């Protein structure tokens, strides 16, 4: 999926394996900005700090407005308690307006804007995974996943110069001038640009996600990357459904909408989902379910964003997740399943990009909650033939999707989310165990005892 601000007005879609057709959808380009730059910067910094992707003193954000003024976070102010009044405006003529001096890194922000007129916002921070690459003079290969590769844009590397110096601005701007969007700074951190602050944040988050996943995967074994053909298969896929106008929502639908939004937000804050990846759904009745939309920031979803799908039709005026047919296939195949989540938690996703088998027979709770986790070959979940249901059921509620994260099903939204947390915690424990010694797998006799004690069939 492209950046939410870069989605074309006309997309191709395929329904039930049919021929591609064009579908006119509302433009996803950023609407006329209504939120003030002060508020946009403070809200985004709060999110970055809350995700532990920067420190109290590290990082800075900026926005270049329509007048050519640059709004930027201040120097030497606690990033965890930033207020709108702390934000500084450096006007086009160089006049500084604000209670504080602008960030000491203002020179490289200005240099990037001068070099790239298309960039309207910049994120600079020191997230641990990308800092690790920066001190090794390396850049992460984002071809781990189609989504991350698309969102991160062109990746570059800028040589070291003293923080705050004009030379650092020159080095970074030169890399951006080559067409790079996400740039590793040698022995420093990362700088990401976008045509809006939400877009820059999405790039920054996806880039760090790729770095974290790659570090974890390399602890497991050889990393598998997607080739050009595989990236195109995912990039070009799209789904549309006929529309219908639903009746007034009943209380049970309203409650499921509330729960989906609550658990999607929790998933983002637990780092089980990121803003541009993942889908969550809940069954409403035999022939209908609710699902998260496509091309919307996951943490910012509200109950009106959730899409009702009924009898293969989508709620009028809304675009369901592009995984909607996979969700529908699983529901159609197994009436016991009441909720499904496709997600990209870092540790479990690390297994998806290697050939190492994810084994739940390491922890009793993991086996009881997840049973044996299936491995889904690349691209099965994109198909309209329903074959994803061969891998996910109430008797096999979790699966690793090759180079695309995981899918988990449950008997409720809470149950699916709980299983997702258990899956990620187990993956992290197994990866960490490799640094301690040899991983011990429970013998068949123990598994039989668990199946009997917990009525697992």
Automatic annotation (TrEMBL):
Entry EC number(s) = 4.1.2.17
- Taxonomically, the superkingdom here is Bacteria
Q: Which GO terms describe its molecular function?
A: L-fuculose-phosphate aldolase activity; metal ion binding
Which keywords belong to this entry?
Lyase, Metal-binding
- Extract one GO BP annotation from the record: pentose catabolic process
Q: Offer a single GO CC term for the protein.
A: cytosol
Q: Which residue numbers delimit the Class II aldolase/adducin N-terminal domain?
A: 39-215, 258-431
* Any Pfam family: Aldolase_II
Q: What class of enzyme is it?
A: lyase
UniProt name for this protein = L-fuculose-phosphate aldolase
Please tell me the species this chain comes from.
Aporhodopirellula rubra
Upper lineage: Bacteria, Pseudomonadati, Planctomycetota, Planctomycetia, Pirellulales
């Amino acid at each position: 999926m492209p950046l939410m601000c870069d989605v074309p007005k006309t997309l191709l879609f395929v329904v039930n394996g049919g021929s591609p057709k064009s579908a006119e959808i509302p433009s996803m380009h950023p609407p006329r900005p209504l939120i003030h730059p002060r508020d946009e910067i403070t809200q985004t910094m709060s999110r970055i700090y809350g995700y532990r992707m920067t420190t109290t003193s590290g990082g800075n954000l900026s926005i270049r407005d329509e007048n050519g003024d640059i709004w930027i976070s201040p120097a030497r102010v606690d990033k965890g308690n930033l207020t709108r009044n702390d934000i500084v405006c450096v006007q086009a003529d160089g006049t500084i307006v604000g209670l504080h001096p602008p960030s000491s890194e203002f020179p490289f922000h200005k240099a990037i804007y001068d070099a790239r007129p298309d960039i309207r916002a910049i994120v600079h921070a020191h997230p641990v995974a990308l800092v690790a690459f920066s001190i090794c003079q390396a850049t992460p290969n984002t071809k781990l996943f189609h989504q991350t590769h698309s969102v991160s844009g062109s990746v570059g590397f800028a040589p070291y110069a003293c923080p705050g110096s004009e030379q650092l601005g020159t080095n970074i701007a030169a890399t951006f001038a080559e067409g790079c969007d996400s740039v590793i700074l040698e022995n420093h951190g990362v700088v990401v640009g976008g045509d809006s602050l939400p877009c820059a944040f999405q790039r920054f988050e996806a880039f760090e996600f790729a770095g974290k996943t790659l570090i974890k995967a390399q602890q497991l074994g050889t990393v598998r990357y997607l080739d050009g053909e595989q990236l195109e298969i995912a990039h070009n896929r799209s789904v549309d459904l006929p529309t219908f106008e639903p009746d007034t929502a009943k209380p049970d639908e309203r409650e499921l909408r509330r729960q989906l939004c609550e658990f999607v937000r929790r998933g983002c804050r637990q780092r089980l989902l990121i803003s541009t990846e993942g889908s969550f759904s809940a069954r409403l009745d035999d022939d209908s379910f609710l699902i998260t939309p496509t091309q919307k920031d996951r943490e910012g979803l509200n109950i009106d964003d959730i899409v009702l799908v009924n009898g293969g039709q989508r709620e009028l005026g809304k675009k369901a997740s592009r995984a909607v047919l996979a969700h529908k296939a699983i529901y159609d195949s197994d009436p016991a399943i009441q909720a499904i989540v496709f997600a990209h938690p870092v540790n479990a996703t690390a297994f998806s990009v290697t050939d190492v088998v994810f084994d739940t027979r390491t922890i009793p709770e993991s086996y009881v909650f997840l049973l044996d986790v299936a491995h889904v070959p690349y691209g099965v979940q994109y198909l309209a033939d329903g074959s994803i249901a061969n891998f996910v059921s109430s008797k096999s509620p979790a699966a690793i999707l090759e180079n695309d994260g995981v899918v988990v099903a449950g008997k409720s939204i809470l149950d699916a989310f709980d299983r997702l947390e258990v899956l990620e915690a187990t993956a992290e424990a197994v990866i960490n165990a490799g640094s301690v010694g040899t991983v011990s797998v429970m013998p068949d006799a123990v598994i039989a005892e668990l199946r009997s004690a917990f009525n697992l069939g």
